[in-house]
């Protein structure tokens, strides 16, 4: 991410990143032009998804929560999901799987 000083047009650099949450941060920015000295704060936040992640579910927080459940509770959850998911959702997708790196 590149920043330009609104006062003089010179390059600016992030001097501090104050992460408020996983989806929002405040960036403290300073102009690199010594004679200008302009400093400001930019807000950066998650807007929306353009494509879903191609990572397997085991990389998600949901998977970590399920893996910490006692085996009996985990089996009960699997059975409930089998009853409630439509048949198309249970089958593995056919065709090649695209993995982005």
Describe the structure.
A hairpin with a 2-residue loop joins strand 2 (11-21) and strand 3. The model has no long low-confidence stretch (mean pLDDT 84). A four-stranded antiparallel beta sheet has the order 1-2-3-4, with no helix packed on it. It has 101 residues and is α+β, with helices and mostly antiparallel strands. The protein is 25% helix and 28% strand. The protein has helices spanning 61-67, 71-84, 87-90, and strands at 3-4, 11-21, 24-31, 39-45. It folds into two domains: 3-45, no CATH class; 57-86. It contains three helices and four strands. InterPro entries: Znf_Ogr/Delta. Residues 5-41 form the Zinc finger Ogr/Delta-type domain. This is Zinc finger Ogr/Delta-type domain-containing protein.
- Helix fraction by DSSP (H/I, runs of at least 4): 10-25%
Bulk shape: elongated
- Seen as an oligomer or otherwise, the chain set is single chain
**Low-confidence runs:** none
Structural class: alpha+beta
Strand order of the largest sheet: 1-2-3-4
Straight-line distance between termini: 20 Å
Provide the domain count. 2
What is the N-to-C succession of helices and strands? EEEEHHH
**Biggest sheet overview:** 4 strands, antiparallel
- Estimate the strand proportion: 25-35%
Tally the helices: what do you get?
3
- Rg, alpha carbons: 23 Å
Chain-averaged pLDDT: 84
Number of strands: 4
């Amino acid at each position: 991410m590149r920043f330009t000083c609104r006062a003089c047009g010179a390059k600016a650099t992030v001097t501090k990143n104050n992460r408020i949450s996983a989806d929002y941060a405040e960036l403290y920015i300073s102009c690199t032009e010594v004679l200008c000295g302009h400093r400001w704060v930019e807000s950066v936040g998650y807007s929306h998804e353009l494509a879903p992640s191609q990572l397997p579910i085991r990389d998600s927080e949901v998977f970590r929560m399920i893996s910490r459940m006692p085996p009996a509770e985990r089996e009960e959850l699997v059975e409930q999901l089998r009853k409630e998911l439509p048949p198309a959702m249970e089958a593995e997708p056919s065709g090649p799987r695209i993995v982005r790196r």
